[in-house]
Amino acid sequence: MSTRIGLIVPSSNTVIEVDFYRRLPPRCTLHTARMYLEQTTPEGESVMLDEHLPRATSDLATARPDVTVFGCTSAGALRGNAYEAKLVDEIQSQTGSATFSVAASVRWAIRAAGCRRVGVITPYVDSLNEKIAESLQDDGLEVAGIHGLGITENFAIAEVEPERIAQFAAECFAGSDIELLFASCTNFRAFDAREQIHQAVGLPVVTSNQAALAAVLDHLGAPAAV
Question: Where are the alpha helices (DSSP H) in the chain?
Answer without folding.
Answer: 16-23, 42-47, 53-61, 73-78, 81-95, 102-112, 126-137, 154-157, 162-173, 194-201, 208-220
